[in-house]
Amino acid sequence: MTAVTRRWLVGFAWANLVANIGIVVTGGAVRLTGSGLGCPTWPRCSDESYVPHGELGLHGAIEFGNRLLTFAVGAIAIAAFVAAWRSRDRRARLLALLIGLYIPAQAVIGGITVLTDLNPWVVSFHFLSSMVIIGLCVMLLDHLLAGPRMAAGQRTRGLAWAVFALGWVVLYLGTVVTGSGPHSGDLDSKRTGLDPQVMSHVHAWAVYVLVAATVAVLVVARRTGRPLLQSAAGALLALELAQGVVGFWQYFADLPELLVATHMLGAALTSAAITWVVLAARARTDAA
User: Fold this and answer.
1) What residues pair up with 149 in beta bridges, in sequence order?
2) Which of 22, 43, 68, 253 has its CA 20 to 30 A from that of 287?
3) Which residues pair with 284 in a beta bridge?
4) Measured between alpha carbons, how far is 203 from 198 in angstroms, rounded to an integer?
């Protein structure tokens, strides 16, 4: 791969990650402003038009704006795939292709959330699908930027995978808490029927276990001299602590929209960080 092609590919890989984290936050803004059904159908915005009209008001403009952002994210993914194809790096091609294919699939899932009137379980799946895309973006960046490294010991790798699995449990339980709470995206949307206070405590206990596992990885990485894994675990731990502060703050402040949006950003970053932890523990024998 030429130096110019590599620079473009790395740039688009970073843009992929930023764009997919960004659209999680804008998607949250749609829900937090009660605009989830601003365009009440899909793929049209209304039965008569693909674009919002005056009767749909501000909510229609917000929801339609988020739909348009999907095209921007898709354009970045296509550019990354073109750069990967020119690089003749088969793994980069595969990862860029998966990211590119996942984005229209995610758009369809988003359409299903509208057609099901923001069913909270479908909304949860929509959010978690974005977490998968973010993980793939991190995998592409790790492939492009990380140098050769030996695999961590079996116990360390097991701890890293435990952190990854626990992270996904925490992310899922976070969507369950949201699905039982007040920010449904539309005043008439159904909730899960679960007790939001109980689910918040279940979510919090899962976070405590995740923090403990992350500390274990950090200690082992430090003792065994694995600086990349130590950095990944340290970044994840800092993020978990920040998320904990925001989570408790929003809980006791009755879920103000700005704090909820900040917590959603933290969730997207958590997906990236738990993926980085697993990658930092595995062997890498080649360099892109």
Assistant:
1) 284
2) 22
3) 149
4) 9
Q: What is the pLDDT of residues 67-81, one digit of tens each?
A: 888 999 999 999 999
User: What is the spatial distance between Cα 133 and Cα 135, in angstroms, rounded to a whole number?
Assistant: 5
The one-character DSSP state at 230 is: H
Residues in the chain: 288
Residues 6+ apart with CB under 8 A from 130: 20, 23, 24, 27, 106, 268
Q: Supply 191's token pair.
A: 């909730």
Structure tokens at 5: 């092609």
Return the SS3 of 286. coil
Alpha helices in 181-256 (DSSP H): 196-223, 227-252
Judge whether 217 and 159 are in contact, CB under 8 Å: yes
The position carrying tokens 């960046």 is: 141
The token pair at 229 is: 């894994």
Q: Give pLDDT, residue 282.
A: 86
Instruction: Calculate what percentage of the chain has a pLDDT beyond 70.
Output: 94
Residues 6 or more apart from 182 whose CB is under 8 A from it?
255
Q: Where are the alpha helices (DSSP H) in 3-89?
A: 3-32, 57-87
pTM confidence score: 0.91
Q: How much is the pLDDT for 66?
A: 85
On the question of a cis peptide bond just before residue 52, with omega within 30 degrees of 0, the verdict is no
Contacting residues for 117 by C-beta, under 8 A, at least 6 apart: 37, 186, 188, 189, 190
Of 281, 15, 241, 228, nearest in space to 140 by CA = 15
